Amino acid sequence: MFDLVTQGFKDASLKLKGQTRLTDENISQALDAIKRSLLDADVDLKVTKQFLENVRGKALDEVVQLKAKSGQKVSAGDHFIKTCHDELVEFLGGNQTEIIKNSKGPTVILLVGLQGAGKTTHAAKLAKLLAERYKMRPLLVAADVYRPAARDQLKILGDKINVPVFTLESNDAVEIAEKGLEFARSEWLDLVIIDTAGRLAIDNNLMTELESVKAKVNPQNILLVIDSMIGQDAVRTASAFDMRLNLTGVILTKLDGDTRGGAALSVKKVTGKNILFAGTGESLDKLEEFRPDGMAGRILGMGDVVGLMDDFGKAMDMEKAEKSASRMLEGHFDFNDFLEMIGTIGKMGPIKDVIAKTPLASQISEKDMDKVKDGDISRKGAIVQSMTTKERENPDLLLIQKSQTARSRIARIAKGSAHTEKDVKDLVDQFMQMRQMMQMMSGMGLGGGGLLSKIPGLGQLNQMANMAKMAKMMGGGGGGGMPAGLGNMFGGSGMPTPAGGMGGGLSSADLAEINRMKKRKKEEKLKKQKKR
């Protein structure tokens, strides 16, 4: 949803390319590009002006060293983007915040907002998230007494996530909320989420009812549910609710939509209230804790590794993934692993959103990103599912140059999956590239405790260096295109790969490492043959 803003920061960085000093002249050009993108994204005008002034004040006349202590080359553009990142984090709320927990009874969360914002659905999403993340025992309270079927909807959602729902045959929202809290205490439940009625517009009756509910149940958290698609109206809505109820935070919905994103960048600065949660999809698991640093990284094209690993954790069986990762890094990678990998990625949401959270995001051009298609996941899966068990476990059987048998296998798989033979051949080629990449990662010492034990947070510097090295090799030197394996997998153009492997973008040291790896593999194979 932040495409407009991201493009503005990319344009600003390009304007500073090759500069060693940030001056009033060159920084003004960069800030103009950002200003246009922020206003196009419907960011509040006052917020935009303040952001630009803060960045200018912190970055102006800063002398940029051409080399950091680590030896890595940096530029004026790098320093400028770092300044923008820090300022974005501050504008989005600074440090990550959490709900306020009650130490003497159930924690009460009162959800408020306009009709159609998604309060009822997000009540269930929030209950599911807090139950799984913090092992809380939630109760949903259906206190929307005006919208037809609102109570039934909450009951259905509660059943889906195995969370009890409390309601009464009453039209008194205050009574329902009060009795619901009493029920939670009697059942030793430690979280109460109250779904309240909304209106098409803010009116005095709505606010008076909400003030009465607040006075009766004394909630620790009053969260405003805002539809991010309504732009600056969302900010005005937040201000109006805050004046009457003293909000403690905001839930921003539909962040996965094709919206301009201005509300997310404005709401904290205008209202002073942090965004605590963000809805990123329609299913009940598509709610995440809002992380300002992660969102700032995604806006700037720097990725959000922590958020990405959280998505992985939700989508995969961790024990199974550990075993698969260890196998892959030991050089064992077959079509079963491949199928499991693309299945996991498919569960994580739109592919563009997944890629946006990777550190490689800034290397992918807008043109290549437009070629990324979610449907390619299911098409790849259909081809693999048409293979026999033997073919999945022994991918080399499908190497066309080996025999006529391989060609007949390709033809059969193409017919069975309703694809062309070229589609199958392309998939086999992409798979071979990925397998070689896994073997290279093993050769560079990324194995040991399994991939998942190594990646979270990318906390160790040597691993960051190795991942950056891999990114460079995958992208042919960072020329702006999508990495070959990733691009081909999801519809992007990628970088051309020389016949016979990935050697085109590798250094002599890398090629030597590959040769050593091949030699080691041959030696292991000979040993196994002798044992037989």
Automatic annotation (TrEMBL):
Residues 105-252 form the AAA+ ATPase domain. Residues 106-301 form the SRP54-type proteins GTP-binding domain. Keywords: GTP-binding, Hydrolase, Nucleotide-binding, Ribonucleoprotein, RNA-binding, Signal recognition particle. It catalyses: GTP + H2O = GDP + phosphate + H(+). GO terms for biological process: SRP-dependent cotranslational protein targeting to membrane. It comes from the Bacteria. Gene3D superfamilies: P-loop containing nucleotide triphosphate hydrolases, Signal recognition particle SRP54, nucleotide-binding domain, Signal recognition particle, SRP54 subunit, M-domain. This is signal-recognition-particle GTPase. The lineage of its organism: Bacteria, Pseudomonadati, Bdellovibrionota, Oligoflexia, Silvanigrellales.
